[in-house]
Amino acid sequence: MFDELENTLKEILHRLDEQQALLQVTLNSLTTSKAVANFLGISQRTIQLWVKQKKLQEGTHYYRDGKRLVFIPAAILELKNNPYKGSSPLKEDMPKEKTTKKKTLNPVAKKILGDLKKVSNG
Predict the structure, then answer these.
(1) 8-state DSSP, 55
(2) pLDDT tens, 24-58?
(3) Which of 90, 60, 92, 97 is nearest to 75 (CA)?
(4) What is the separation of C-alpha 63 from the centre of its chain, rounded to a whole number of angstroms?
(5) What pTM, to 2 d.p., does this model score?
(6) In angstroms, rounded to a whole number, what is the distance separating the alpha carbons of residues 90 and 78?
(7) Maximum CA pair distance of the chain?
(8) pLDDT in tens, 56-82
(9) Start-end of H helices in the chain
């Protein structure tokens, strides 16, 4: 039984190492606006707007290499993992809870419908 548990733990550690390597590869590729947009599930135009509106902060989410924006992978990962933290632009894109509105009739329409109901019943 101990050997089986030890083998299971070794397998778990092996898979964690694989996941960590995959995450590192993914993070290293999150430096372009195209890669960031794909990772966050938004358009490149949205990335441009967020930069312009300062929703993505220079020095926090990206830095400039000449005119080119270079995104900081750890900050982008944090943004995706914690969309409700602080003033995250992703929080604004989260689907809002739907509220059901009670439908009410215009008083004139209500009167007309009431009168029609009386006519059809009587």
Answers:
(1) S
(2) 777 678 899 999 999 899 999 999 999 999 999 99
(3) 60
(4) 22
(5) 0.56
(6) 11
(7) 86
(8) 999 999 999 999 999 998 889 888 888
(9) 2-28, 33-40, 44-52, 73-81, 89-93, 107-121
